[in-house]
Task: inverse folding
């Protein structure tokens, strides 16, 4: 009887596991439906779209991508440059500040760190008005610094917390041995803290890169010229300009804007997971 009872329980567990896998597969499929529709539509003409929106194109119209790439190429370069610089500056500030909070002692250290944690509780939308006033006051409106400064000021907060926790978990003997060898605080940061904190720095880089790239409201507020605009807003302007003239090119622009983030995920997902799990198991 005991063997039969265990066999029945095992069969029920297998059926439940199969049900869970089917449900998760269906949810994943539904999540990819908009992406597939966007990709298919980007190869169609207006006639095909209006005739049957969900039908496959009779032949791929690659000229849609030519039109979209020609209009968005400048904006894509803008985005890569601005986001890249903002991510580098964020990592530098987060690494230095995280090291300071983890290894150095100074008056008000705990209070200042608690204030940083409190800033994470404030919704980012509440910063729009004061940031906009500051950008106008210092003459940064319609410049790329109007994007970079607010991005790094907000993005480094999470980076400081993660870097501080990661560096704090490093063995103190490493830093003591470095001091005995004549290494200063800057050397400890460059040769010990940063190399051993690479997983968490990679995680911060990926998270902030995705956040900066996907930002839409702030660039639309502070960048007026389309030649300086980032691609998330430029795609919207492209959509308004095209209207119903060439919907296929409009969707091609969406695909082009999505590709960098997709490529980033494919090449950095391992680093992201390593950073998220770093320090989860101690031993």
Result:
């Amino acid at each position: 009887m005991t063997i039969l009872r265990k066999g029945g329980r095992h069969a029920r567990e297998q059926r439940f596991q199969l049900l869970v896998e089917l449900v998760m597969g269906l949810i994943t499929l539904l999540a990819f439906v908009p992406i597939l529709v966007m990709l298919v539509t980007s190869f169609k003409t207006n006639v095909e779209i209006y005739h049957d929106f969900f039908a496959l194109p009779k032949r791929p119209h690659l000229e849609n991508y030519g039109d979209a790439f020609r209009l968005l190429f400048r904006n894509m370069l803008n985005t890569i440059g601005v986001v890249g610089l903002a991510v580098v500056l964020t990592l530098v500030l987060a690494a230095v500040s995280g090291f300071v909070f983890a290894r150095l002692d100074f008056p008000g250290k705990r209070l200042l760190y608690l204030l940083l944690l409190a800033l994470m509780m404030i919704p980012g939308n509440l910063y729009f008005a004061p940031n906009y006033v500051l950008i106008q006051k210092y003459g940064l409106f319609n410049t790329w610094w109007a994007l970079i400064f607010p991005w790094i000021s907000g993005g480094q907060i999470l980076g400081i917390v993660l870097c501080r926790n990661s560096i704090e978990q490093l063995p103190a003997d490493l830093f003591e041995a470095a001091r005995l060898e004549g290494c200063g605080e800057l050397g400890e940061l460059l040769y010990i803290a940063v190399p051993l904190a690479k997983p968490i720095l990679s995680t911060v880089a990926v998270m902030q890169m995705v956040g900066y790239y996907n930002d839409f409201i702030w660039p639309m507020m502070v960048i007026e010229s389309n030649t300086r605009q980032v691609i998330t807003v430029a795609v919207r302007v492209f959509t308004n300009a095209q209207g119903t003239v060439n919907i296929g090119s409009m969707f091609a622009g969406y695909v082009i804007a999505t590709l960098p983030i997709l490529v980033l995920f494919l090449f950095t997902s391992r680093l992201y997971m390593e950073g998220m799990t770093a320090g989860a198991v101690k031993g």
Observations:
- The radius of gyration is 25 Å.
- Residues 187 and 197 are 14 Å apart (CA to CA).
- Residues 2-41 form one domain.
